[in-house]
Design brief:
single chain, alpha/beta, Nitrilase/N-carbamoyl-D-aminoacid amidohydrolase, 6-stranded mixed beta sheet, 6 helices, C-N_Hydrolase_sf, Putative N-carbamoyl-D-amino acid hydrolase, C-N_Hydrolase, hydrolase
């Protein structure tokens, strides 16, 4: 295998509402059982999604350096694996809809959701981390969360910063994202992993259909809408470095920034 052949995947799971310990134990169990380089879990994997009151969510929110993540960190370090999962992050008086990446080196990186959806605006503070890329061995990985998908600027920013793959934890309830992420991958020539959940909380019915999309817009695999599934495959991420469409067109070199409105 070339150095850019990586085992990547998603974990489409049911999440136990408000049961943080049980949810983290599930993430740890799957991480231990499966062989991969990078595995992506859904948005808010530690808490579930449906909360009426911010104070109830804040009570079970976690900090980046909380000891509850220590065993997962050790597991990633010992087995040379990296994971991305969504969690409700507490930082002082603020609460963020965040995604944590724990790397094979045991490092923790947190992305805070930029674009909050619907009632999330009464529960969470606006994310302030911005979009960034993490180097994992020889590949560059960016993160975005769920509703970020509808803003093309999110994926484009990550791609311009060098991301070859986007890890995309989600709690999707609308039918549009999966197909939109095909376009996001194609227009940026990057791989994407959308990890959605299944089940129902309150009025929210989560749509599943987690997927991996290649840099040419091909669906490598898409899960079913209502069953748990962990899917892992090899991908050749060096393909995401090639932004040429043909001999005369390069996706990034052909951009005309002087005519765009930011």
């Amino acid at each position: 295998m070339s150095r850019c052949q990586y085992r990547v995947g998603f974990s489409q799971i049911k999440i136990h509402h408000k049961d943080v310990e049980k949810n983290i134990e599930k993430i740890e169990r799957i991480t231990k059982e499966k062989m991969f380089d990078l595995l992506v879990f859904p948005e808010l994997s530690t808490t579930g999604y449906h909360f009426e009151k911010r104070k109830d969510l804040k009570k079970i929110s976690l900090q980046k350096d909380d000891e509850i993540f220590d065993s997962l960190e050790k597991l990633c370090r010992d087995e040379c694996k990296s994971v991305v999962f969504g969690f409700s992050e507490k930082d002082g008086e603020n609460v963020y809809n965040s995604a944590m990446m724990i790397t094979f080196e045991g490092k923790r990186y947190v992305y805070r959701k930029t674009h909050l959806f619907f009632k999330e605006k009464k529960l969470f503070d606006k994310g302030d981390s911005g979009f960034f890329v993490v180097k994992l061995k020889d590949i560059n990985v960016g993160m975005m969360i769920c509703f970020d998908w509808i803003f093309p600027e999110a994926a484009r920013t990550l791609a311009l910063k060098g991301a070859q793959l986007i890890a995309h934890p989600s709690n999707l309830v609308m039918p549009y994202c999966q197909n939109a992420m095909i376009t996001r991958s194609l227009e940026n020539r990057i791989f994407s992993i959308t990890s959605n959940r299944i089940g129902r909380e309150g009025d929210y019915n989560f749509t599943g259909k987690s997927q991996i999309v290649s840099s040419d817009g091909r669906i490598i695999h898409r899960a079913k809408s209502s069953t748990e599934e962990v899917f892992i495959t090899y991908v050749d991420l060096k393909k995401a470095k090639n932004k040429k469409i043909n001999d005369r067109n390069d996706l990034f070199k052909d951009r005309r920034n002087e005519f765009y409105v930011c």
